[in-house]
Amino acid sequence: MSAKIPSDLIIVVGRQFGSGGRRIGNLLARIFSLAYYDKEMLAEASEQFGFSQNIFARCDEKRPSALRALLTNAFGVGDAYAPGPMSDEAIYSAQSHVIRELASRGGCVFVGRSADYILREHPHVVSIFLSSPIEQRAKAIFGRGDAPTLEKARELAARCDRAREDFYNYFTGRKWGRSDNYHLSLDTSLLNDEAAVDVITKYIEGRFNSPVGSPDKTTDQDTGQDNGGPSEV
């Protein structure tokens, strides 16, 4: 790889449920030789910083509030430094602490967990959002055995998307999936995993191989339109 890729490159993959986020994140981690963290890996890593894995991994618990139920489904709830229930904000704070500490140790890939927002000030973060029409995602979800029928797969995709959107919007004040919150947005129904990874890789190489001081934006000479901002495919 000829481009000068920063050793502390951080790739964050946001995704609709069933759009291939974990697979693509894993491929990117291998290509760039980065550590990889999804929900399970993040739960394991949390113990290095004194947190119980339960704060991320105990996914089957129920909580009275809608937000608490969301956090249960997304991360699990449990003890951090001491026994007893934690507030929603404390759980998010603990998750954010672990993500920042892992990012400070070197380059890595995070899948979900609003890491794009948590690490928004990192100079070498690349945030990506993956989407796909729900019918395509339902076929993928059904095909991997996560739902017994296509209809159930559609329902699961819609339910998980709502949960992710509610969580992200609540804690970040941003709009989940909105393209201007990410550096690159991809519809994975139009590309296989390898092609999607190739697009992302070329973006990263081009971004970090640009000469220092080169303009961030270009202007269409005919229309005067500003063509800067997030790339979208």
What does this structure look like?
This protein is an alpha/beta fold and 233 residues long. It has a single domain (10-207), classed as P-loop containing nucleotide triphosphate hydrolases (Rossmann fold), CATH 3.40.50.300. It has nine helices and six strands, in the order βαβααααβαβααβαβ. A six-stranded parallel sheet has the order 2-3-1-4-5-6, with helices on both faces. α9 links the parallel β5 (184-187) and β6. α4 (66-74) packs across α8 (150-172). The longest helix has 23 residues, at 150-172.
List the helices and strands and how they pair.
Elements: E1 10-15, H1 21-32, E2 35-37, H2 39-46, H3 54-57, H4 66-74, H5 88-104, E3 108-111, H6 115-118, E4 125-131, H7 134-143, H8 150-172, E5 184-187, H9 193-208, E6 231-232
Parallel strand pairs: 1-3, 1-4, 2-3, 4-5, 5-6
Helix pairs in contact: 1-9, 4-8, 7-8
What characteristics describe this protein?
alpha/beta; Rossmann fold; six-stranded parallel beta sheet; 9 helices; disordered C terminus; 44% helix; globular; 233 residues; 11% strand; 6 strands
Short structural summary:
It contains nine helices and six strands; from the N terminus they run E-H-E-H-H-H-H-E-H-E-H-H-E-H-E.
Q: Give the overall shape, derived from the CA principal axes.
A: globular
CATH class placement:
Alpha Beta
The whole-angstrom Rg is 18 Å
How many angstroms separate the termini?
23 Å
CATH topology: Rossmann fold
What is the CATH superfamily label? Answer: P-loop containing nucleotide triphosphate hydrolases
Q: Average pLDDT value?
A: 81
Per DSSP E runs of 2 or more residues, the count of β-strands stands at: 6
What strand order characterises the main sheet? 2-3-1-4-5-6
User: In percent terms, what proportion of residues is strand?
Assistant: 5-15%
Low-pLDDT sequence parts: 58-64, 69-84, 211-233
Please identify the structural class as seen in this structure.
Answer: alpha/beta
Which CATH-level-2 architecture?
3-Layer(aba) Sandwich
Structure annotation, total helices: 9
How many domains make up the 3D coordinates?
Answer: 1
Main sheet specs? 6 strands, parallel
Fraction of residues in H or I helices: 40-55%
Order of helices and strands: EHEHHHHEHEHHEHE
